[in-house]
Amino acid sequence: MPASYAYLGPEGTFTEVALRTLPEAATRELIPYVSVQSALDAVRAGEAEAAFVPIENSVEGGITTTLDELVAGAPLMIYREVLLSITFALLVRPGTQLSDIKTVSAHPAAQPQVRNWLKNNLPDVHWESAASNADAARLVQEGQYDAAFAGEFAAARYGLRALETGIHDAENAQTRFVLVGRPARPAAPSGADKTSVVLWQRDDHPGGLRDLLGEFATRGINLMLLQSRPTGAGIGNYCFCIDAEGHITDRRVAEALMGLKRICREVRFLGSYPRADKEREDLLAPLPGTSDEEFMAASDWVARCQDGRF
Ligand SMILES: O=C(O)C(=O)Cc1ccccc1
């Protein structure tokens, strides 16, 4: 049996399209799961080598199911990310006209991306959330709903017709997907990497979040994501999901994580992996004083001082 990747299914999701852009997907069996949780649980149970799931979109922010699983479920790690531009088609059964549509369905993350279009074109329609956009298409095929927002490519798979295409309230809307596996050594740095962590503060004090962010700022590390998620322990209790520039083997990143480990109640490392938005050539040089060489020279100097050899 070839190693398999679980993904948010059924067939015809944006997730599947994004997954197929990864070269390694060509050598794996790709297995659709009904939810993000079930795909991630398949990895935890050892049924799948990795799972591919949406984690963030540029219109609405984090996909909370995925974040919460990575924050609170049995530990998993991110190994890859993919960015996909998203534009929706309105899929219907052949013969359906716009004026026939009373119910429409899609993944909850799709709604903020088509809200204005709906207001202008189908103001009285009833919205029903589905487990994924392709699942909404499947439910239209079964006759449960009149229309689904999904990728145009899902139409053929579910015997549907695209009544409208190119639907998107925001230009350049993108969704970010991640390949998640069981914890193991991260891939070697690619030169343009990202490190994801979850932080729990030790106590509640003024400037607490600034203290966490300061560990990155003083080492010249840019952040790409900061999302608070409730811990479930009551109003006002949050943990912070952070994506930071760099790889855990970069000295400045390792030192920032050491700083956070000292001041946080808990730090969960979610992985260091190549970033999908930039290549090595696009990156700016590290800020003065934050390169690996400068960290190493400073640490050698301290060692010499400790030895009385400065
Ligand atoms: O992959 C899909 O089709 C999904 O249902 C997740 C999703 C939701 C909204 C935009 C992109 C992906």
TrEMBL record:
One CC-aspect GO term: cytoplasm
GO-annotated biological processes: L-phenylalanine biosynthetic process
Catalytic activity annotation: prephenate + H(+) = 3-phenylpyruvate + CO2 + H2O
The Prephenate dehydratase domain, residue ranges: 4-182
Coiled-coil annotated spans: none
CDD domains per the UniProt record, alphabetical: ACT_CM-PDT (cd04905), PBP2_Aa-PDT_like (cd13632)
Pathway: Amino-acid biosynthesis; L-phenylalanine biosynthesis; phenylpyruvate from prephenate: step 1/1
Domain of life of the native organism: Bacteria
Site positions for Essential for prephenate dehydratase activity: T175
InterPro entries attached to this UniProt entry: ACT-like_dom_sf, ACT_dom, Chor_mutase/pphenate_deHydtase, Preph_deHydtase, Preph_deHydtase_CS
EC number: 4.2.1.51
Keywords carried by this UniProt record: Amino-acid biosynthesis, Aromatic amino acid biosynthesis, Lyase, Phenylalanine biosynthesis
GO MF annotation: an example: prephenate dehydratase activity
Domain ACT positions: 197-274
Assembly: Homodimer.
Protein name stated in the entry: Prephenate dehydratase
